[in-house]
Amino acid sequence: MSLKHAVLALVAERRGYGYELVQRFEERVGPGWQLNPSAVYPALDQLERGGLVTSVARRGGTNRSPRIVYAPTDAGTDALETWLCATDAPSEPVRADVHLRIAFARREHHLALATQLATQERACSDLLARYPRPHGAGRDTTGPALVDDAVVTRLRAELAWLAQARATFERDAG
Amino acid sequence: MSLKHAVLALVAERRGYGYELVQRFEERVGPGWQLNPSAVYPALDQLERGGLVTSVARRGGTNRSPRIVYAPTDAGTDALETWLCATDAPSEPVRADVHLRIAFARREHHLALATQLATQERACSDLLARYPRPHGAGRDTTGPALVDDAVVTRLRAELAWLAQARATFERDAG
Questions:
Q1: Judging by DSSP bridges, how do beta strands A16-17 and B66-72 pair with one another?
Q2: pLDDT tens track for A63-89
């Protein structure tokens, strides 16, 4: 996953410190990624060790958690362009834990599966309710709007399948 | 990802050695997971170190690559049931590298993005062409058939979105 590159893109857009980058990530990519905010700090460390970003200042914060502001290096700017221009990124395999569980389940597991699928349906519905996101006026919103479409399309398909699969297991278990 | 548990389930079904487990995984879960066959060996090592499987025999092979046959331990059988009965598995976030790239792309990257999306469309079509899989007659095929439905539903939704996103970027870049 290219979280590292996304963080690099945020820093290149405007220098910033960890928490601020998390907020801008959310704003740009949306809730579908379910970013764990703490994942941004290792990404920044990795980028700094690789010479792609550098810490340029400290902006407030506390002694225990100083707000270190990052900016891209020339190598970082180049790496970002390479990532954005890549045409050979592999497509994502269709991997889901629940598919494995379903593939190996026996009849006595069907009730537990139905319960799990119901939980996933709720999670998908909750996430779907957060779309469409408001997009700032006057900016190029092509990218973020297409990402929203991707997430909404996928969630709707997932919900259709989840309902069908849950009904199958409920019938079998009943 | 619970590849480890899937391998445990295969071993519990019938003792087996690495390559044979890979074949049975493919047969049970299908091509959607795009399992890298070499991933099975670290999973077996991890299961053995955790006391969930044990190597019980050697069946042919060569000195350089002996075929070590694995069987589940009692702890492995328990762990498998726990996994199959779990109702609290987290739902999968909607994460795709290409979404990140799209979220951060500027106009000059749109042509490269259109090319990448076309590649992904071909990959999705190729994978979709491998469904539905033939399922062995006389066995309970509920699980594997539902996994097929999940993959097909997701691929169709992905193809619809890919075509729309590609058209957007082609128009912008043209």
A1: unpaired
A2: 777 789 999 999 999 999 999 988 777
- What is the C-alpha separation between B171 and B163, in angstroms, rounded? 12
- DSSP classification of residue A129: T
Helix (H, G, I), strand (E, B) or coil at A96: coil
Contact call for B150 and A99, based on CB within 8 A:
yes
Residue A9 identity (one-letter amino acid): A
Taking residues B85-90, report their average pLDDT: 79
Find residues 63-92 of chain B whose CB sits inside 8 Å of chain A: 83-92
Note if the pTM is more than 0.80.
Answer: yes
Comparing CA positions, the residue from B47, B15, B18, B22 lying closest to residue B36 is B22
Sheet with strand A66-72: strands edge to edge: A16-17, A66-72, A53-61
CB pairs under 8 A between A and B: 207
Cα A77 to Cα A97: distance, rounded to the nearest angstrom: 37
How far is the alpha carbon of A87 from chain B, nearest alpha carbon, in Å?
5
**Closest residue in chain B to residue A126, using alpha carbons only:** B91
**Cβ proximity of B11 and B68 under 8 Å:** no
DSSP chain B: --HHHHHHHHHHHS-EEHHHHHHHHHHHH-GGG---GGGHHHHHHHHHHTTSEEEEEEEEE-SSSEEEEEEE-HHHHHHHHHHHH---PPPPP---HHHHHHHH--GGGHHHHHHHHHHHHHHHHHHHTT-SPP--TTS--HHHHHHHHHHHHHHHHHHHHHHHHHHHHHHHH-
